[in-house]
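User: Sequence for Leucine rich immune protein (Coil-less) below. Tokens please.
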Amino acid sequence: MASLRLFIWLFFNICFYTSGTEAKAPSRPVQPYHYDYSRIQETDQAWKCWKEGYRPPPATSNKIHEQGNGTVAEIERILRFDQSNTVLFLFSSNSDNQNLHTTFTVERNKLVRLSLDNAGLERLELALLGRENDCRLADLSVPRNRLRDLPTGVERLTALRKLDYSYNLLEEFKLDRLSNAAGLKQLLLSHNRLERFVATEQVNLAVLHKLDLSNNRLRALDASYWTMPQLETFHVDNNRHLTMIDGWTRAMFPLVKGFDPTGTNNWNQTWLKSVQ
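Assistant: Structure tokens for Leucine rich immune protein (Coil-less):
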């Protein structure tokens, strides 16, 4: 009888242990993502238009810097910072962020600089009312993400000095959308999938000095509607099917020294000699 009781006890305990083990199957490890960000908050000052080199005085600002490794939820928490009192926000990551999927919305803010480098961005939006941001954001940099379009309303960012969309998934860029950014100095669009870079009306970017369209898929380019008298650095190499640039003359772009010295485009040599 004692042997029977021992057998029954062992049987139930073995069954219980086995079922408990199956219920606690090992979970998939959570992937950590590296991040490094800086944020300067403006605590007391009223809304004001951006000025060259503007920074809030130390007496009314608070600087935060943090780096580490975090989950998707922690990265999203960082990106949900309070935009209403932030002047500068710079986020970067050196992780492989192929599995990180985020979106970001620019809300009513005091941002002078916004940089989201390798943040897993798949969508960028502007949610601004009236003329809230027309005289503020000067640097919008979102390189190494998965963005396919410019945000609706980018036409309103009239204070832009730098727009960096390099290493994204753009297939088309309409230069007309930046016609209100008269002070734009740098437009960086390298390493996208651009097949079209077009302007349908005259676009006057009087102080633009750097335009980078390299490493795209451009087959045709027309500069007829570009007014860029200060353009000095123009990268258009590694667009292998580009043979010439319509409307390009040395008189229109006197500071540009030449094109594609390494020969990575299939230039029409007659055209090339006429514009060098």
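Residues 181-275 form one domain.
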